[in-house]
Write a structure and sequence with these properties.
By secondary structure, the protein is an alpha/beta fold. It contains 6 helices and 10 strands, in the order βββαβααβαββββαβα.
Amino acid sequence: MRILGIIPARGGSKGVPLKNSKLLNGKPLLAYTSEIALQSTYLTEVILSSDDLQIIEVAKQWGVHTPFIRPTELAQDTTPTIDVIIHALEWYEKQAVSFDAVCLLQVTSPFRTVQFLDAALEKFIVSGCDSLVSVQKVPHEYNPHWTFEVNAEGNLTVATGEEKIISRRQELPETYHRDGSIYITKTEVLLHQHSLYGKSISFIESSPELYVNIDTMADWEKAEQMIKNNQL
């Protein structure tokens, strides 16, 4: 299976200025994801999608292919990720190059391992599902069966639609949330359904000890502390 690895990294970061090229423990944040992606057994090609020349230069220094400069209109705060992916696929189509699937690797999750990435890719290939996402368990206190919505009368109702709330923690089904580390999707689903997920979604559970999603300075400081504490 031909799988394109895409690392999206635009230049207009606000939560952490110049985040993608900012040094984390002596190397650019972008480098963490780049190194892992390039070591993968299953990725046919790894590219950067960016509108920023400085980020593109950093990617080149770390061995990532930068076949194009992403158009400015696809590098806005409101730009959907799927549009960035489709732009890359259409660029390759013009070169008469095709892929069976895309693996999206966001720079904001720097501490995934190549073993974890390859396990995700292998599970996706074997599963035959439309997509695979990396997830973590939802703590029981935030389980959707224990959360509420406000109805038209201004009263609380169980968010999952049940009439009676589950009373015992042990009876709660396991639920998961996307952690943003890995998204893998069949090309036909991306292009024809305009979806990252499709109709069948496989999953792989991430290690909570390696989890950080860097969107704010507090997240950045957490990442620095994780390195300092030798958690990695």
